């Protein structure tokens, strides 16, 4: 795991040292937000080409369009929530859910309560697994269900307290990648909302990477890397996190690190295109 952390740090530093970042950092940030949103929506079942996301203005027509629209809203606002995140992560998570579902939804911004269940993660892979089962193939191993709402709320409070205490004490000790991966994994494990937990967990990881100073300009879209690695690998890595073992946790952190390095590669390509005058 230390090797994965060090590799990520070196990759991010190289990107921040690119000559384009001296003049056009804001443009790189905007492009990273767009590409990250497209990839996060793809992981939630709305796999649209980048140019389709770029040209569209109406995201309310159907379920896929609403998924893409929610991911775009989250990506556009995530960086602005940093000051609130530092003292109230739960408030930010509620805001991310509202952005994901739209403020017209009755459950917008409200965590699960009572006997409410969370929707399944990885819809694309679930569809593939159903197809394999129908064809007589092996069925993918299912993730365990989300914990009951009261347990999820209690664990979410504990996570928020740990993050707040870390902010008060200064971001030292635990590497940023590890903190971001734990927040990401814990939110996927808890699924605190009835829907859209995947896009919220990935946005929270992005906010942590900004807050911890590893990616202060939000130019490293880890969501792109997660989509490139695929939902099957994402699910297997998450199972490692859910196992609670040292090896499982190391595998999850390594997966998040690999995704972040692929995000760095994506933005490096954007910088190179800008340097050649292609963007």
From TrEMBL:
Supply the InterPro entries for this chain. Answer: Fido (IPR003812), Fido-like_dom_sf (IPR036597)
What are the Fido domain coordinates in residue numbering? 88-255
Record PROSITE patterns? FIDO (PS51459)
Superkingdom, according to UniProt?
Answer: Bacteria
Please report the name of this protein according to its UniProt entry.
Fido domain-containing protein
Biological source species: Kitasatospora atroaurantiaca
């Amino acid at each position: 795991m230390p090797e994965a952390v060090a590799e990520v740090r070196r990759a991010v530093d190289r990107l921040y040292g690119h000559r384009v970042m001296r003049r056009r950092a804001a443009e790189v940030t905007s492009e990273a937000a767009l590409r990250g949103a497209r990839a996060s929506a793809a992981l939630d079942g709305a796999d649209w080409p980048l140019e389709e996301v770029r040209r569209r203005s109406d995201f309310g027509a159907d379920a896929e369009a609403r998924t893409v629209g929610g991911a775009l809203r989250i990506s556009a606002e995530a960086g602005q929530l940093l000051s609130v995140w530092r003292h109230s992560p739960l408030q930010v998570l509620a805001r991310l859910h509202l952005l994901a579902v739209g403020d017209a939804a009755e459950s917008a911004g409200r965590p699960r309560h009572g006997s409410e269940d969370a929707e399944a993660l990885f819809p694309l892979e679930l569809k593939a697994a159903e197809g394999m089962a129908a064809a007589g193939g092996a069925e993918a191993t299912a993730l365990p269900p989300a914990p009951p709402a009261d347990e999820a709320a209690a664990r979410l409070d504990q996570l928020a307290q740990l993050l707040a205490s870390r902010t008060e004490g200064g971001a030292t000790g635990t590497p940023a990648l590890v903190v971001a991966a734990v927040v990401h994994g814990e939110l996927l494990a808890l699924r605190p909302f009835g829907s859209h937990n995947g896009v919220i967990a990935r946005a929270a990881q992005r906010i942590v990477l900004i807050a911890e100073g590893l990616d202060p300009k939000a130019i490293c879209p880890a969501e792109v890397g997660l989509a490139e690695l695929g939902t099957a690998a994402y699910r297997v890595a998450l199972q490692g996190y859910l196992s609670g073992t040292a090896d499982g946790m190391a595998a999850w952190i390594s997966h998040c690190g690999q995704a972040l390095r692929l995000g760095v590669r994506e933005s490096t390509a954007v910088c190179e295109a800008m340097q050649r005058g292609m963007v």
